[in-house]
Specification:
CATH topology of the largest domain: Growth Hormone, Chain: A
CATH superfamily of the largest domain: MFS general substrate transporter like domains
Number of domains: 3
Order of helices and strands: HHHHHHHHHHHHHHHHHH
Distance between the termini: 2 Å
Shape: globular
Number of helices: 18
CATH class of the largest domain: Mainly Alpha
CATH architecture of the largest domain: Up-down Bundle
Strand content: under 5%
Largest sheet: none
Radius of gyration: 23 Å
Length: 505
């Protein structure tokens, strides 16, 4: 192995098993960031009461994190390609831990929001580099399995987050849900220092495209804000229109800038590769589907079926657990036979789950409902690792950081759009149904005693069924696009690159 690629401990790192130590280090970051996303959601009501602020302010505790994470992922990926993925991954551990400490110490909601921004910067440094480090460490014929294991750990962390958060809040207090990240962060920082490979030096000095980064981050921020605030302010409001116009102008300026600068923030030539383009598009659509369902299902289970909060939480866990079980096997199979068959199968199975949800109605049978949710998790577990592996395999090795940043950014956008757009479709149709039944401008529908229960349920199902129909079509579109993903050719190229990498040892 060339000197620039020597691991910190040459005696051990020369062994084939060393890559699994690298994966274990990356999994610490995956666990910490995934656990934080789901664990904080449980604490929102508690934080609202503690800080005695409005729901609009509390929403920014989640919004600030998600917005910061999404807009900075490509920049962090680009910086990691320039200055070293291991270095920035280690900095990510430190920044995330500091942000967690500040969150736990927060005396006010404003302090908490700023601390969540710091946390998100750390999470962005971790996410932008995690898949890139795995791709660099593993040959093409093992990459899918490794990414599948990472996906499984993330799914498990997200599924246990609400349970762990509930226990910590009840027994220790809400501050503990942030302090729990600190020991993981310290352990991860030490592991990254001694296990991750040294940073590659860029052959030539490259400039950071800060102008492009500013255009992109601000344009994406306005786009995300428009979708998040559209329901509350009204889609025809001057504020939302200005958000969309600002986003269009700024993102257009970003594209113009990227085409002119010598070293762009995001090399747009990456999107000329069909595998990279299709993989990112279908990855965004898959997260759109997943989080649209995760957003609507609690309302369906509690308000329509009448299940308790505890049972509702339990019923949502089969989705990430099924993903966790299936993901490593899916990645391993894709290493042998290519990603196309697994990604297509995964989207078709997810489509079957959405199709089944169309017919659940107001008296769904619990075993059937659990089976459908497991089916959705299986579909997502089959799709995600092979798709991520194909995306990363299609990128040049000196662009892995940018590729990883774009990959995670697209998934974050899928999450945001899945919740926001599905929420708009659902709310619009629900209120239209109520207006047709003589209840125009109804507010707080399920707590409104003047509306008969049967009309409330039918109004909910009216919107719910249409949303599921849209998700079904998106799954079928993703399946169709996945069949065009010629990842077998890309994998062969990546395997040859990996061989040259090993031969240079």
């Amino acid at each position: 192995m060339s000197r620039t690629l020597q691991f910190p401990h040459p005696h051990f790192s020369s062994r084939p098993s060393w890559k699994w130590f690298i994966l274990s280090t990356v999994l610490m970051g995956a666990t910490m960031s995934a656990l934080d996303v789901s664990i904080v959601n449980v604490a929102m009501p508690t934080l609202k009461n503690t800080f005695n602020v409005s729901m609009a302010v509390i929403e920014w505790i989640a919004m600030a994190y998600m917005l910061t994470l999404t807009i900075f992922l490509p920049l962090f990926g680009r910086l990691s390609d320039m200055y070293g993925r291991s270095k920035l991954y280690n900095i990510g551990f430190v920044v995330f831990s500091v942000g967690s400490l500040l969150c736990g110490m927060s005396p006010t909601a404003g302090f908490m929001i700023v601390s969540r921004v710091i946390q998100a910067i750390g999470a962005g440094l971790l996410q932008a580099n995690s898949v890139a480090i795995i791709t660099h460490a593993f040959p093409a014929n093992e990459r899918g399995k490794a990414i599948g294991i990472q996906g499984a750990i993330q799914a498990i962390s997200m599924s246990v987050g609400p349970f762990v958060g509930g226990i910590l809040i009840a027994t220790v207090g809400w501050r503990a849900i942030f302090y729990i990240n600190i020991p993981i962060g310290i352990l991860g920082t030490l592991a990254a220092l001694f296990i991750l490979p040294p940073n590659q030096k860029v052959k030539e000095k490259e400039k950071v495209d800060y102008l492009g980064a500013a255009f992109f981050a601000s344009g994406l921020a306005f786009l995300v804000l428009a979708f998040n605030e559209g329901v509350k302010l009204g889609w025809a409001s001057h504020t939302i229109i200005m958000y969309f116009l600002s986003s269009t102008v700024l993102l257009s300026l970003f594209i113009i800038t990227e085409l002119r600068v010598e070293h762009p923030l995001i090399d747009l030539k990456l999107f000329k590769n069909a595998t990279f383009l299709i993989g990112n598009l279908t990855g965004m659509l898959s997260y759109y589907v997943l989080f649209a369902i995760m957003f609507l299902m609690p309302f369906y289970l509690e308000k329509v079926l009448g299940y308790s909060v505890a049972l509702t939480g339990s019923l949502l866990t089969p989705i990430p657990l099924a993903m966790a079980v299936v993901a490593p096997f899916s990645g391993h199979i894709s290493d042998k036979y290519g990603s196309r068959i697994m990604t297509t199968s995964g989207m078709l199975i997810s489509a079957l789950a959405c199709f089944s949800l169309l017919f659940m109605g107001v008296s769904a049978q619990l075993p059937l409902l659990v089976a459908v949710l497991i089916l959705l998790g299986v579909g997502m577990g089959l799709f995600t690792p092979p798709n991520n592996s194909a995306i990363m395999g299609s990128a040049p090795r000196d662009k892995l950081g940018v590729a990883g940043g774009v990959l995670n950014m697209m998934r974050s956008l899928g999450l945001i759009f899945g919740v926001d757009i599905s929420g708009v479709i659902f709310t619009t149709l629900e209120h239209r149904y109520l207006a047709e039944k003589g209840y125009p401008n109804a507010q707080h529908v399920f707590s409104n005693t003047s509306i008969p229960v049967s009309i409330k349920d039918n109004a909910f199902m009216h919107g719910f069924i249409v949303v599921m129909g849209v998700l079904l079509l998106l799954n079928l579109l993703s399946a169709f696009l996945s069949t065009a993903n010629k990842s077998s050719v890309v994998d062969a190229e990546a395997a040859e690159a990996a061989k040259e990498f090993v031969d240079g040892a």
